[in-house]
Design brief:
This protein is of the alpha/beta class. Helix content is about 40%, strand content about 15%. It has a 5-stranded mixed sheet with strand order 3-2-1-4-5. A hairpin with an 8-residue loop joins strand 1 and strand 2. The protein is globular and about 55 Å long. The C terminus is likely disordered.
Length: about 200
């Protein structure tokens, strides 16, 4: 069972990102502030849920959250500042939209670049431990999936409507055959031939 809070009596914002390990597309981050003692029997890490259940929970989160925001950072910026810093930037950009100040930021993972003078806690596998982080993971994931499905209409050969930009066999084969798009991350070397492919693509 996930926990409703890290520190009792604190207003906490959970943060998570989606798309960090992809070959293409933006990295997306979200924060969610849930009501005190909020719980849901099915809410957990978005990666452990079916697409249908993620969509149902997204509606629940949007309805019940005190506050939330989703932000994206493009593949071009990922290439410029690296994926770790781009993930931090996406989180910071989301937090720039805060309307009420939380007492604590709960970050999924083991690293974070401090945001202004806010207190934060990094929590490994936090999206399986705290409802607010799980909620953020679902909003980030569903938002990004919608983006990649839309991008797949423009670049259909890569299968982004199903692989969401990750390094599946179909995606890699399509890169080998067709080259890359402006949405591919040129700084990534997730498979051995990728760098040569990028060098040979206009």
């Amino acid at each position: 069972m996930l926990r409703s809070f890290h520190t009792k009596g604190f207003k906490e914002a959970g943060l998570d990102e989606a798309g960090r390990g992809c070959l293409a597309g933006p990295v997306v981050a979200a924060y969610v502030i849930l009501p005190p003692d909020y719980s849901h029997p099915l809410l957990t890490d978005s990666k452990k849920l079916s697409k249908k259940l993620r969509e149902t929970l997204r509606e629940e989160i949007i309805k019940e959250a005190i506050e939330y925001h989703v932000s994206e950072v493009s593949s071009e910026v990922v290439d410029e500042i690296n994926i770790l810093n781009a993930s931090f930037l996406a989180m910071h950009q989301a937090l720039d939209n805060l309307k009420c100040r939380p007492d604590l930021l709960l970050i999924d993972g083991n690293r974070f670049k401090a945001y202004k003078n806010f207190h934060h806690e990094c929590i490994v596998e936090g999206d399986s431990k705290f409802f607010s982080i799980a909620a953020a993971s679902i909003l980030a994931k569903t938002y990004r999936d919608d983006l990649m499905t839309k991008f797949a209409e423009e670049f259909p050969v890569y299968g982004w409507h199903t692989n969401m930009g990750y390094a599946t066999k179909k995606h890699i084969a399509a890169i080998k055959e067709h080259g890359i798009t402006p949405l591919h991350r040129k700084s990534f070397t997730l498979f051995s031939t990728q760098l040569d492919l990028f060098k040979n693509t206009p």
